[in-house]
Amino acid sequence: MPLNKQSGNMYPWVTHTWNVIKGRCPHDCVYCYMKRFPQKPFRFDEKEFRTNLGSGNTIFVGSSCDMWAEEVSTGWIMKILEHCKKYPDNTYLFQSKNPARFYQLYDILPKKVILGTTLETNRDTTNISKAPPISYRSFYMWYISNFRHVDTMISIEPIMDFDLGLFVEMIDKIRPKFVSIGADSKGHNLPEPPAWKVEQLIIELKEFTEVRVKENLNRILEGNNHKEGGGKP
Ligand code: SF4
Fold first, then answer.
1. Of 132, 186, 193, 181, whose CA–CA distance to 157 is shortest?
2. pLDDT at 187
3. 3, exposed or middle or buried, with CB in 10 Å at 0-12, 13-18, 19+?
4. How many C-alpha atoms does 11 have within 13 Å on its Cβ side?
5. Residues whose CB falls within 8 Å of the CB of residue 171, separated by 6 or more in sequence, listed in order
6. DSSP 72
7. Which atom of ligand 1 lies at the shortest distance from residue 34's CA?
8. Residue 232 alpha carbon to ligand 1 centre in Å
9. Whose CA is nearest to atom 7 of ligand 1?
10. pLDDT mean over 127-145
11. Which of 50, 54, 126, 166 has an alpha carbon 20 to 30 Å from 207's alpha carbon atom?
């Protein structure tokens, strides 16, 4: 089977995606782009192991369903990691809203990995997903980044209103290699920060990490919020 080239609103720095676990993601985020398609219960697609992952690629493994969700069996994850290890010249992006499982399975990860999570905001009081809360995600990313010395990244997408100082402090503790920031592309009516706050966030993050701004953030930076979550102090 051919490897899927990245397309659409994916990260421009990812070359390909590879998904073995398919179907309805247990995290059920309200803004999930996969909800635009008919979804079956999640399942393990053995046929994907015919895929040659090649070399020199940066592959987002599990881009369409969070393969690290609690509901996914450890045996399934181990099989996926074993296949990745057959192609050691690639860099594998594993991004999950349940990074505790990176910690549990760290010793069997392929050599070249980037581990990431999504922090849409610093606030736990969001009601947009069944995924583990933001504080839990940030704690495990902090631990992995600081005590395992592996490359990490944070995705702030879709960005939601946040507390500037607390959010910067949360990310500073994680010390990610880079932060990717993007906005809701499909009008899910999320509480969004005003442009000035996003601009300030970018300035403050750049003091200790690389910031990769996605094109879809321009809507907010130009002042076109879906629903503004906060005013200027
Ligand atoms: S974790 Fe990702 S794949 Fe799963 S529902 Fe949320 S946005 Fe979709």
1. 181
2. 87
3. middle
4. 25
5. 119, 138, 154, 179, 205, 209
6. S
7. 8
8. 31
9. 32
10. 96
11. 126
DSSP 35: G
Output the pLDDT for position 232: 44
Report how far ligand 1's centroid is from the alpha carbon of 64 (Å).
Answer: 7
Q: Is 114 helix (H, G, I), strand (E, B) or coil?
A: strand
The rounded Å distance from CA 116 to ligand 1 centre is 13
Q: Are 130 and 27 in contact (CB under 8 A)?
A: yes
62's CB contacts (< 8 A; 6+ apart) are 18, 19, 20, 21, 68, 80, 94, 95, 96
Contact 134, 99 (CB under 8 A): no
Place of tokens 């581990």: 115
Q: What is the pLDDT of residues 15-60, one digit of tens each?
A: 999 999 999 999 999 999 999 888 899 999 999 999 999 999 999 9
Strand partners, 25: none
Mean pLDDT of the chain: 93
Q: How far is ligand 1, taken at its centre, from the CA of residue 84, in Å? A: 22
Q: Given this model, what pLDDT does residue 224 score?
A: 79
Task: Please give the single-letter amino acid code of residue 144.
Answer: I
Amino acid code (one letter) for 34: M
Q: How far apart are CA 50 and CA 28, in angstroms?
A: 29
